[in-house]
Task: inverse folding
């Protein structure tokens, strides 16, 4: 059974052209073992992120989604395999990657504006950050936070705080966005709205995006490809391509095509579970 | 959209924690100042009664009235710059200098311990072991090393006060949120940048908890130093007064030591409130003894 599942994943890979200049991230046979616990978190992961596409990742808790994201960001080392970013091996953190976590991780003693400017300040100093404050203001306006520039995080709602975090991720103009369940802590309505905003931003910037999520409809709604993972060891069971036209409105969720895609993602998730139990 | 109105009938201006305690019984409705004054009066009354019954000798336990009279005498002496005033000034200097050096040295060592592997692996166990020693036992040593003057008392105050600062500073640095650390790493922040822009500010609540403990300990250190190493401070006067069984005098002078400790603690708490504007704090949470 597991064999069969893996072959599904592989054939999904092979249907794409290989060695394309379009390949922003190319992961081949990536594995990760946490030696201290003797735990294989990821095994034989092959994945390609093409320029300007949106990839959703879904899978049971503990299957290594966050680990995969952190390896891509150069935050933790891989155990084996290869990971190329614009053709170059990933060796450490890079400025052209924007990252976002489940929690906003804003610094509570800084205003929204100063939180957005943090990456510039860290990279080039306070003077450079001050020069870029117009840009940061524009970003805050873009996500609907005009007038909240001087407010501190404890006065923001969860959704507003995550929007500040989006601006902080975007301020250095990264071409690759890595998001680890960015809106998982938000309520349904806010989450839909934020996903919508994120889609707009990604289209506008032609960004290559990789987003971890727990919700199947969200994964399908956002993505050009949905990566389905299984646990113990974490591996890709299936990649579902989503060919729904963009920009997508919430209406797309009521179409039969959408329902079909959701069903096939769910089926591969269930298959992954069975595979892990074997 | 529907606006769901959920009105609570309990008094507003309560934190959630307070609301959990609130039961609506009579004790919750007494304003705090009145509660404090009532309990104080009860304790004074008990004191007065115990002395009045004559169960203990008035020489060993003077009543509230005698103590009050003595307190007034002492206050007069302090205000006119008499010998008690001079002694209080000396003890104040010892306490403040001891506290400040404990703060500087404690935060510095705390950062060393919290930021380096050697610190974490090798220095911290020694600090924990040292911390378990009865530190006042070192007082005679400091007197031998630094003499009968003010210096041995400053060192004693420093020695008692700086352990909590080290430990809480290191703990604060270790308690930094992992995702935020990851964020700093992704921004390629250097070690110094991460320390200055992330770790130290987020450790401030911990550091202040240590400093508040240090404020109280510094007074203890100074007075213990004076008990054992002489000098001209309040400790020496208290020792002399108790040798001549002037317990009322001892009580009156201890009162002023209490004022000194409270003022220093209050100053630290005030600085905390100003600096930690982004978070609520329990200013008067009680710190453990020596
Ligand atoms: N630093 C670490 N050291 C040891 N094991 C780790 C470490 N980080 C993660 N793991 C383990 O690796 C596995 C994958 O973890 P990961 O956080 O990537 O899962 P996830 O798919 O993101 O889960 P979730 O959906 O719950 O966030 C888990 O079993 C976890 O216990
Ligand atoms: Mg995760």
Result:
């Amino acid at each position: 059974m597991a064999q069969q599942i893996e072959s599904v994943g592989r054939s999904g890979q092979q249907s794409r052209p290989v060695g394309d200049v379009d390949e922003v991230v190319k992961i081949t046979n990536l594995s990760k073992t946490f030696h201290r616990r003797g735990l294989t978190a990821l095994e034989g992961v092959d994945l390609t992120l093409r320029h300007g596409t949106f990839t959703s990742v879904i899978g049971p808790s503990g299957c290594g989604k966050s680990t995969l994201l952190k390896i891509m960001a150069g935050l933790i080392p891989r155990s084996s395999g290869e990971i190329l970013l614009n053709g170059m091996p990933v060796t450490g953190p890079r400025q052209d990657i924007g990252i976002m976590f489940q929690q906003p991780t804003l610094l509570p003693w800084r205003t929204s504006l100063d939180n957005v400017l943090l990456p510039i300040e860290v990279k080039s100093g306070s003077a450079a950050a001050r020069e870029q404050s117009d840009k940061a203001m524009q970003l805050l306006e873009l996500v609907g936070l005009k007038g909240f520039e001087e407010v501190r995080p404890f006065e923001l709602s969860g959704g507003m705080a995550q929007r500040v975090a989006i601006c902080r991720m975007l301020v250095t103009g990264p071409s690759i966005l890595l998001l680890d369940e960015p809106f998982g802590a938000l309520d349904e309505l806010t989450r839909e709205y934020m996903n919508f905003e994120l889609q707009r931003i990604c289209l506008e910037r032609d960004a290559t995006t990789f987003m971890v999520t727990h919700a199947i409809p969200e994964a399908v709604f956002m993505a050009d490809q949905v990566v389905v993972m299984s646990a113990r060891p974490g591996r890709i069971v299936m990649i579902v391509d989503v060919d729904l036209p963009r920009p997508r409105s919430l209406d797309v969720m009521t179409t039969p095509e959408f329902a079909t895609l959701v069903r096939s993602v769910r089926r591969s998730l269930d298959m992954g579970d069975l595979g892990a139990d074997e | 959209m529907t606006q769901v109105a959920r009105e609570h009938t309990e008094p507003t201006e309560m934190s959630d924690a307070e609301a959990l305690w609130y039961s609506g019984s009579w004790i919750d409705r007494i304003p705090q100042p009145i509660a404090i004054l009532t309990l104080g009066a009860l304790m004074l009354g008990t004191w007065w009664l115990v002395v009045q019954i004559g169960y203990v000798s008035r020489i060993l336990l003077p009543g509230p009235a005698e103590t009050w009279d003595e307190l007034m005498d002492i206050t007069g002496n302090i205000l006119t710059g008499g010998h008690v005033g001079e002694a209080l000034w000396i003890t104040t200097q010892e306490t403040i200098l001891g506290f400040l050096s404990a703060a500087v040295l404690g935060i510095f060592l705390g950062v060393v311990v919290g930021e380096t592997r050697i610190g974490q692996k090798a220095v911290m166990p020694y600090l924990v072991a040292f911390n378990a020693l009865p530190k006042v036992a070192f007082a005679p040593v400091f007197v031998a090393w630094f003499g009968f003057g003010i210096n041995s008392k400053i060192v004693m105050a420093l020695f008692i006060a700086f352990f909590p600062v080290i430990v809480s500073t290191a703990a604060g640095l270790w308690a930094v949120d992992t995702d935020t650390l990851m964020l700093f790493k992704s921004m390629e922040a250097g070690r110094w940048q991460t320390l200055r822009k992330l770790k130290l500010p987020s450790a401030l609540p911990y550091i202040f908890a240590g400093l508040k403990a240090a404020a109280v300990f510094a007074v203890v250190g100074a007075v213990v130093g004076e008990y054992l190493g002489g000098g001209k401070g309040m400790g020496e006067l208290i020792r002399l007064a108790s040798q001549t069984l002037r317990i009322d005098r001892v009580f009156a002078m201890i009162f002023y030591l209490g004022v000194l400790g409270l003022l220093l603690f209050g100053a630290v708490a005030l600085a905390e409130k100003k600096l930690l504007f982004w978070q609520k704090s329990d200013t008067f949470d009680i710190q453990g003894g020596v």
Residues 1-10, 281-290 of chain B have pLDDT under 50 and may be disordered. The pocket of magnesium ion (ligand 2) is lined by residues A 65-66, 180 (CB under 6 Å).
